UniProtKB/TrEMBL annotation:
This is ABC transporter G family member 22. It is a multi-pass membrane protein. The lineage of its organism: Eukaryota, Metazoa, Spiralia, Lophotrochozoa, Mollusca. It comes from the Eukaryota. GO terms for molecular function: ABC-type transporter activity; ATP binding; ATP hydrolysis activity. The keyword Secreted does not apply. SMART domains: AAA.
């Protein structure tokens, strides 16, 4: 009724050219989520080149089982082995996990997405050409060639279709040539023909490349159902059937539940499990009885309810002598690598090539060996490769967000408006407040725009980053550094282009002050970006981040030194937390240091001047430094500038730590 080892290994048409694959065996797997026992004594196995479907009603524990098998969820008891060895870090690297949600950067094309995955996930020992060849191979295998130049898209921008996106999701995982592929509901959300074609493609790929495939599946059609080799039926965390997929109907028949003709077997078994508690119990009990019978693979005939688990048959493990020889061979490779000078990083035996050679070798369940391997294999690529590729990707993704058509229109409109309102502003006491106004406006505009742009950019890419971090694609530090630097040119472009136009249109203080103003605005924009980045990381939710950013901007603006210069004494310290306060004072300092004098109010028909210089007889001008004194801008320029650097450093460091230690992917 159910299947045996030999049954599973000799399916007709099984063509294995992918080397020795992985055989997954899980016995009496029990797992908890919090105090709740979500999996109870679940057993099964799947051989290389074959597909196991995990099915069951909603809440049956399919995803939990998949997570547990993939090592993403802790095991409470039982055993999971791959080729007879317990799952360890090095084995985990031969496994890939395709999430149910297809999360990507929407503005990148499929080609850019896959190229990025290949560049950061394949070892540095492979050349760019080899990595691109790998991409082409996967694209061919998954039939994605025709949409390589299409953007991934999202709910707002049209891009790849649902089926293509799912294939793209799988392709990103297959890039590393994993031996074991876990898929969480790969067909959900797809129409029948797309789902069928996807499962067929997977089956062909598994057969041809000797991959082991385990997928949770939700109400498949009978055609899709029979594409799988074996089935594990789950119900309330328990196993309700495990065996050949084409024997499940027979199994149900044996417990007195006959399926009428033309019924979809997938629907039939699910309906029976959901019928009532008595029926469900009958099926589960029959499945447990089945386990004790001889038809079950020996290695799965473990116990339930705490009885002793049988050991994995020795035939599954490699011959001991052979195993120990291979172990020492590996140690020798590592020793040779270690004795090589650092410059040999790109030579044949660089860490990458060891990584590859070890990936191809069979695993050894030896603690010392694992430690050596894991040290070398923590990341698939070096920091520089990760940083470079992440920078290129973030730049491509961010440029449409930060510098899109609407943003350009907005910036041009504001620039024209500001230039016209304050055009060639006369340098008089009467227009002093206007001059301060335009300076304050520039500070606000070039600080708050990058703050808003970055505060939204991080939460929007959170899911992609979490997915990639959970699969160990790259270091958080490489991502963070890339994020900061790749967006910099886009953020600095605004003050450079539009700040320059405004500066000369208004007629601010000369050439040398122009360069200093531009430099200050750059630092100011970077401070705004740093605060935005921190808020985006800390909140991880666009709406919350926007709310906090708005409060932050309003506070910063009120305390910036333009609207009020005389805060109540018990509140006056608050102005020091506003980065705008420092920039505004920097720019004021530049505007009125070594600058032409300001005409007195009396010379322009305003009877009373506020400046002492104008009260002298025949005096017509106010020296610039008196303007600074009048507004109590009495620190040296660098003293106003320094806190901006402190803002940049503090927020960037805080952002990194929150991202690394607080916002970990689950
Ligand atoms: N954090 C949690 N705390 C308590 N119970 C949980 C938690 N997460 C999941 N569960 C429970 O674990 C059980 C199995 O969940 P799981 O997601 O594995 O089911 P599933 O079969 O994949 O369901 P679906 O088909 O609806 O996705 C469910 O009953 C669910 O309510």
């Amino acid at each position: 009724m159910t299947l045996s080892n030999s049954d599973m290994s000799s399916k007709p048409g099984t063509k294995t050219n992918g080397g020795r694959g992985l055989e997954l065996v899980f016995r009496d797997v029990t797992a908890h989520i919090g105090p709740k026992e979500v999996l109870k004594d679940v057993s099964g196995m799947v051989k290389a080149g074959q597909l196991l479907a995990i099915m069951g009603p909603s809440g049956a524990g399919k995803t939990t089982l998949l997570n547990t098998l993939a090592g993403r969820n802790p095991l409470s008891s039982g055993e999971i082995t791959l080729n007879g060895s317990k799952i360890n870090k090095s084995l985990k690297r031969k496994v890939c996990y395709v999430l149910q949600q297809d999360v990507f950067f929407p503005n990148l094309t499929l080609k850019e997405t896959l190229t990025f995955a290949a560049m950061v996930r394949l070892p540095d020992s492979m050349s760019r050409k080899e990595k691109l060849e790998k991409v082409n191979e996967i694209v061919d295998a998954l039939d994605l060639t025709k949409c390589l130049e299409t953007i991934m898209g999202d709910m707002w921008t049209r891009g790849l279709s649902g089926g293509e996106k799912k294939r793209a999701n799988i392709a990103c995982e297959l890039i590393t040539d994993p031996l074991m592929i876990y898929l969480d509901e790969p067909t959900s959300g797809l129409d029948y023909s797309t789902a069928f074609s996807l499962v067929q493609t997977l089956k062909t790929y598994a057969r041809q490349h000797n991959k082991t495939v385990v997928a949770t599946i939700h109400q498949p059609s009978s055609f899709i159902f029979y594409q799988f080799d074996s089935l594990l039926l789950m119900s309330e965390g328990e196993s309700a059937y495990y065996g050949d997929i084409d024997k499940v109907v027979e199994f149900f028949g044996s417990v007195g539940m006959e399926m009428s003709q033309h019924y979809n077997p997938a629907d039939f078994v699910l309906e029976k499990l959901k019928e009532d508690e008595k029926t469900r119990k009958r099926i589960v009990d029959a499945a447990y009885d089945q386990r004790k019978k001889n038809e079950w693979p020996t290695m799965l005939r473990g116990s339930q309810n705490g009885r002793k688990i049988e050991n994995v048959p020795s035939s599954v493990l490699k011959d001991d002598a052979d195993k120990s020889k291979r172990f020492y061979d590996k140690i020798n490779i590592i020793k040779r690598f270690r004795s090589k000078p650092k410059e040999a990083a790109n030579d044949e035996e660089d860490p990458g090539s060891i990584h590859m050679s070890l990936m191809e070798l069979d695993e050894i369940d030896n603690g010392a060996m694992e430690t050596v391997i894991d040290k070398k294999r923590k990341w698939p690529t070096g920091f520089l490769t990760q940083y470079t590729n992440l920078t290129i990707r973030t730049f491509r993704q961010s440029k449409t967000q930060i510098f899109n058509r609407f943003k350009v229109i907005e910036a041009v409109t504001m620039t024209i408006l500001v230039s016209l309102i304050w055009f060639q502003l006369p340098r008089t006491e009467a227009t002093l407040r206007d001059r301060m106004g335009v300076i304050f406006f520039m500070s606000m505009n070039y600080g708050f725009t990058p703050l808003f742009d970055t505060v939204t950019s991080f939460p929007s890419e959170r899911m992609v980053i979490n997915k990639e971090r959970a699969s160990g694609w790259y270091r958080v530090s490489a991502y963070y550094l890339a994020k900061m630097t790749s967006e910099l040119p886009l953020i600095l472009a605004q003050p450079l282009v539009f700040g320059t136009i405004v500066y000369w249109s208004v007629g601010l203080n000369g050439v040398s002050a122009y360069f200093a103003t531009l430099g200050t605005l750059f630092i100011h924009s970077i401070a705004g970006q740093s605060i935005g980045l921190f808020l985006g990381i800390a909140c991880m939710d666009i709406r919350r981040a926007m709310t906090i950013a708005t409060v932050c901007i309003m506070t910063t603006m009120l305390l910036g030194g333009f609207y009020t210069r005389h805060l109540p004494f018990w509140l006056s310290w608050l102005k020091y937390i506003s980065f705008l306060y420092y920039t505004f004072h920097c720019l004021m300092s530049l505007e009125f240091t070594d600058a032409p004098p300001v005409l007195c109010a009396s010379s322009t028909n305003i009877s009373v001047s506020q400046f002492s210089s104008c009260l002298h007889q025949n005096a017509t001008t106010i020296p610039s430094h008196e303007v600074l004194q009048f507004f109590e801008i009495d620190w040296p320029f660098w003293q106003y500038l320094l806190p901006l650097f402190i803002f940049i450093i503090a927020f960037r460091i805080a952002g990194y730590f929150v991202l690394r230690f607080v916002q970990r992917p689950h």
